[in-house]
């Protein structure tokens, strides 16, 4: 009989920014690969609720939670609700991100013309959001002597992206944090890894990927000449969320169609 090495064995996952794009696909992958429950987070409630319905349709229990990951109090409340419903969270996927497509963001001025307030949206979601969620997830994981932490960063954080300097720095900061927390938590059998995405066809970059001229130019930089799909990202996130990756921690795995081969 074939076995699914990615089976999540009834464990509970919490996915931030799961109302669309990569996060939605991760929630569905969890549902289809043996999760015992999925906490579907988004700061847009209707999005979270719609994905929770899809998760339930796949036969998995779901809890939609509206929470802005930049707000520590609201993150704490989200984890409390997850504990009440599912008894805790075994897998945290820090997926919510802000690359500037969101209308709450951001200055498009060059960095040297920006003000510190222009940096906040990038630092808030991409860095502080990760810290807030990991802070709330870890105590129960230590108690259980089990946990999987996965953070979605970007190739921008590995190799740098002009005009996205703060985004690049925030994602690199999140990766550095994940490496350090991996070292702190390894003795509790908690792993902490990152996935660094290249351009992936989600609503965040729909305008860019559907502009033929722009897409053609951009794809010249990709060894595999297509944009990523949410499934490409979710496949690696599922692996890092499963016991198949139990001897892997502190790593950043690029899923980027060969955009860059930098270490
Ligand atoms: N799409 C790409 O090309 C690409 C490339 C590199 C990295 N990434 C990263 O992948 C992750 C997912 O990106 P995506 O393309 O699916 O994005 P998306 O914008 O399509 O979806 C993100 C979801 O997160 C939610 N969200 C945003 N900020 C939030 C917050 N503070 N609290 C709670 N929810 C919040 C949004 O409402 C949205 O539903 C992000 O971390 C992003 O930086 C994406």
Tally of DSSP helical segments: 9
| Ligand set | nicotinamide-adenine-dinucleotide
Report the portion of residues in β strands.
5-15%
Domain count? 1
Instruction: Report the end-to-end length measured between terminal Cα atoms.
Output: 38 Å
Q: What strand order characterises the main sheet?
A: 3-2-1-4-5-6-7
Shape: globular
Which features does this protein show?
about 260 residues; alpha/beta; Rossmann fold; seven-stranded parallel β-sheet; 9 helices; 7 strands; binds nicotinamide-adenine-dinucleotide
Structure description:
With 263 residues, the protein is α/β, with parallel strands linked by helices. The chain has one domain: NAD(P)-binding Rossmann-like Domain (Rossmann fold), CATH 3.40.50.720. Helices cover 45% and strands 15% of the residues. It contains 9 helices and 7 strands. Strands 3-2-1-4-5-6-7 form a 7-stranded parallel sheet, sandwiched between helices. The chain starts with 11 loop residues before the first strand and ends in an 8-residue tail after the last strand. The structure holds nicotinamide-adenine-dinucleotide (NAD).
